[in-house]
Design brief:
This protein is of the alpha/beta class. The chain contains 8 helices and 11 strands. Strand 7, helix 5 and strand 8 form a beta-alpha-beta unit.
């Protein structure tokens, strides 16, 4: 059976957007209007309907069938852990999840942990942070913030932070040093489980993307 409905694809706003559009164009998709979408959040071309959404929402759109497939950072996938199929590592948008503390801490975080039996960690990614510390066997109290993570150790809100970084510049500028690495992240091509099974266009696109990266 031939699919006549447009293929629905979610693209992440922000840092991954430009490279995502360029890669899909190289893969043969009509990306007309995506270079400068303005305030438009949905753009339909000859054979696709593109949805431009917040990076953290891409796994939700894909898992629950709002779109057939998507490009998404591995960080968002790891944090939400939703049911979808990760098909291709696109190898751009590289960044790291790291543990950082004030440069003058001199292992004070470990001392406080030994004294209190719990370490307080600020992060935007509680699931990833919890999994990391469970693997280390360290009991933590997680403080979920939506931004300005770097401030948490300096006002006594947390002993350490777990944050995402590409170069470490922001951490250094805020007098934080990296003490461990949690995981690395790159952009991934993902698909809704039902759509991948029933729509050959998604599998064909994944094959083309694999050859390009």
């Amino acid at each position: 059976m031939t699919n006549t409905a447009p293929l629905k694809i979610a693209l992440p706003k922000g840092a991954l957007y430009k490279d995502s559009v360029e890669l899909l164009a190289k893969a043969g998709l009509d990306t007309s209007g995506l270079a400068d979408p303005g305030r438009l959040l949905a753009i339909t071309t000859t054979d696709c309907c593109f949805y431009i959404v917040r990076p953290t929402d891409v796994p939700v759109f894909t898992s629950l069938g709002g779109v057939d497939c998507a490009i998404c950072g591995h960080d968002s996938l790891a944090e939400l852990g939703l049911d979808l199929i990760e098909m291709v590592d696109l190898k751009f948008g590289g960044c790291r999840f790291v543990v950082a503390e004030p440069a003058d801490a001199s292992n004070k975080a470990e001392s406080r942990y030994l004294r209190r039996g719990v370490m307080r960690v600020a992060t935007k990614y509680p699931s990833i942070t919890q999994a990391y510390y469970e693997k280390k066997g360290v009991q933590v109290e997680i403080v979920k913030l939506h931004g300005n993570i770097e401030l948490a150790p300096f006002c006594g809100l947390a002993d350490r932070v777990v944050d995402i970084t590409a170069t470490g510049t922001t951490l250094r500028e805020n007098n934080l040093i990296i003490v461990d690495e949690v995981l690395t992240s790159t952009a991934r091509f993902v698909g809704n489980t039902a759509s991948v099974r029933t729509d050959p266009r998604i599998r064909a696109l994944a094959e083309r993307l694999t050859k390009l990266v």
